[in-house]
Amino acid sequence: MRTFKTPSLSKQSTKEKHKGKAVPAKEKTCLFRGFGCFEINDFYSMILSMHWERSTIAVTLFSPTQQELPPSSGCHVRERLEQILQETLKMSCQQHFQYTYKLHCNYHLNPYDTPLDPGSVIYAKEGLPCKGEECLGKHRLTKSDLLFWGITQACTTTQQLALDEGEALLDRRPTPRELGRLSYVVEAPKCALLFVELGLSMPDISNIEHEARNLGVETQITRMFLMWTCSYPNHTFRHIENAMKKVEMNWNSLDMVLEKGWESVTLDDMEAVEELNRPLAVSETTGILSNIGKKYFNLFLELGLSVTAIEHCEIDHPTAEGRLLALIKLWINTFQDRATIIRVLKAMKVCKMNWHDTAFIYLGDDHAAKAGKGAVPDYNTDGPV
Q: 140-141 and 128-129: which strand pairing?
């Protein structure tokens, strides 16, 4: 951002333009398609980022000189942009079009980013973690963010919260992690029919099957879902439910894939075992890597790595061994103290992997004898995790 000059929208610059003052060549501004940085006044500037594929305008305010923005700046900019939108729609006789507000933590939207609904933020006392692919939920968006833009409960234009929480959750875009989980409830014989109903073409489906032919079926289905959510960024769980109904697939298991946090995953009596609640070291990852197999894409998606990060590792490391080692190192470096053994085991259980035997690799012989290693693990079951 610091390498580009920003065109001023201040009154002074407008007057100079009308007076015919030429702008020196070195001060010329280069605006990229769909992106612009504008100076509002002496205190703050604005970034506009257009995303045509999802009918979204991302607006970000920042100050190059002040640590805090004026309290009324967000409301002022929002009201002015809203006025421009309404005048534009009226001029083109398109007043029937509607728009709503969303909150996000970055000035642009990645393909898998999911802006938050203001209605959800209003009712969350401590706010909600953002769903940006790059920040991995490090930021929390709270009611104060809504108040900065002058968005209150009265003027929120999003859909009212449904009485049935499960019904309300269906009316939002799935996250990449949820799409990975969803791949385990899709019936493989009806897979092609489902994605055709969702809007993918047969050539797209065949290409994914061919490119991921050496990986698990679940990974192929996950990548189809990822292509679908990029092609239709405004579509929600509701569209998936309707498509599943049309192809006569069991849609009652959709609630199993909704993100509810790691507390929703249990590991029998191993939750409190000290040996499993410590950070994983790179030097001791052999036990995990040996039990990952062809489902590595879904596993690291479940562990919190972004789709982009996983795909970069696939490109940079063509061999399976090098790829898995690079991914586990990346995960450990990304999550630091949160990269624990128990977290890997829970992700393995979600991905229907052999988490039970993997756990005993990191437990002593005494614990294995007490727990009874001959117990039947449940990583092959289709029930909820």
A: antiparallel
Q: Can you read off the two tokens belonging to residue 358?
A: 């993997």
Q: Give how far Cα 114 sits from Cα of 54, 104, 170, 216, Å.
A: 11, 8, 14, 27
**290 in the same domain as 214:** no
Domain of residue 342: give its range.
Answer: 262-371
Q: What is the DSSP letter of 251?
A: -
Identity of residue 354: N
In a domain, 139, yes or no: no
Residue 49 bridge partners (DSSP): 35, 58
The alpha carbon of 218 is separated from its chain's Cα centroid by a whole number of angstroms, namely 19
Q: What's the pLDDT score for residue 70?
A: 82
Question: How far apart, in whole angstroms, are the C-alpha atoms of residue 254 and residue 347?
Answer: 18
Give the count of domains, the chain.
2
C-alpha closest to that of 371 among 262, 266, 288, 273? 273
Tokens 């938050």: give the residue: 116
Structure-token pair, residue 154:
């009265």
Q: Name 62's bridge partners.
A: 45
Alpha-carbon distance of 235 to 243, in angstroms, equals 12
Task: Give the confidence band of 18 by pLDDT, cuts at 50, 70, 90.
Answer: very low
Give the DSSP letter of residue 123.
Answer: H
Quote the CA–CA distance of 370 and 365 in Å, as a whole number. Answer: 9
- H or E stretch including 24? none
φ, ψ for residue 338 (rounded to 5)?
-85, -5
Q: Show which of 205, 229, 257 is a domain's final residue.
A: 257
In this prediction, residues 261-270 reach a mean pLDDT of 69
